[in-house]
Amino acid sequence: MRDRLVVAAPGARQGEGGHHGQGGDARADPEACLTAAVDEIRRETGDVPLDRVPAVIAAQVAAVGPQGPTGQLMLLLRSSGDERAEEIRRGVLRTSAERLAAAAGWRPGDDDTLLRAQVVLAAALGIVLLRASGALEPLQSAGEENLTGPLREMVGALLDR
Description:
This is Tetracyclin repressor-like C-terminal domain-containing protein. This protein is mainly alpha-helical.
């Protein structure tokens, strides 16, 4: 089983918009798609140790190509207008940041470490969006091996204290 964070939509490959990668329209039922994504994240995401976080993020980011992020990932990044889907979306993002923070020794109440983890998550999601835009080289064509070093430095600077 491969380590996952939330950067790449779980269970979906490029161009798949439905929940569980079945090719449906992610806009048709945002709550169902988000719920499916959350269920899969819970099944597939183990506790990733801090020293593995940069490589896991690099692998997930490298999987996003010019086709752009999957429908599930886009549901995590933009509001659907559905109140229940919004709760799920915020919960997934919060849980993802808390998992990153926990890898760095975070405990509830430690807002500094949580903020640092949220910055790492935001940077990773930003990389996904910029890669999908096709506007920036060498970021667009960087592979997992090219991304791991810079991500290791960023994660280390923010979370390895």
